[in-house]
Design brief:
With 193 residues, the chain is of the alpha/beta class. Helix content is 35%, strand content 16%. Strand 1, helix 1 and strand 2 form a beta-alpha-beta unit. The structure holds adenosine-5'-triphosphate (ATP) and nicotinate mononucleotide. One of its GO terms (biological process) is NAD+ biosynthetic process.
Amino acid sequence: MKIGLYFGTFNPIHIGHLIIANHMVEFSDLEEVWFVITPHSPFKKKSSLLGDNHRYQLVQIATEDYRRLKPSTIEFRLPQPNYTINTLVHLEEKYPQHQFNLIMGEDNLASFHKWKNYEVILEEYDIYVYPRIYNGEKPKSQFDNHPKVHQVDAPIMEISSTFIRKAIADKKNIEPLLPNKVWEYIEHMNFYK
Ligand SMILES: Nc1ncnc2c1ncn2[C@@H]1O[C@H](COP(=O)(O)OP(=O)(O)OP(=O)(O)O)[C@@H](O)[C@H]1O
Ligand SMILES: O=C(O)c1ccc[n+]([C@@H]2O[C@H](COP(=O)([O-])O)[C@@H](O)[C@H]2O)c1
């Protein structure tokens, strides 16, 4: 099966993530999208992170009604920080029957040359890129016209988990930015207060 891997910390998952993933399975040739919950992203501080299992629970309840969207905990058992190349090697070993591809925003493509073994990733995997909002000039990447890079015209939803965490701490009602069950779980558990 042709799988798109959507890597992120998902702290918490929000409708921006879901809209992108759903667009990929409906409007590209990807048959499933797996949300790979990253315990520790290489360029991010770990301090304000909810526990791995809570972030997994939130992705699980956000995707359970979508047949072709799935959470993946593969990185929970791997060394940290989590380099994507290591995860890809593990996924290949565990699921030799699948063909894996990467999903990323054009902002991440612009800094992709800083990722560990990015040349190897590009040699072995196709990358599905969706547009992001930018200030001023569109972020250029040396990989824009690479044969393995596929631009997908997904909608732009400028919501971030940072914004959501801060808004909850400030007692704002941001319920429409989260899948309903995710909002209820965060409320019930008193997260980010
Ligand atoms: N609104 C959005 N639309 C499209 N892609 C997004 C959006 N928000 C985040 N992403 C991308 O989705 C991936 C996973 O998101 P992640 O949870 O790591 O980021 P985030 O929402 O920006 O979180 P934070 O604000 O905590 O840094 C990242 O590659 C990120 O760039
Ligand atoms: O492998 C790398 O060198 C690498 C460097 C930066 C980011 N990543 C992956 O990209 C995902 C999104 O990164 P971020 O920092 O934009 O949330 C993150 O969850 C990691 O899995 C991977």
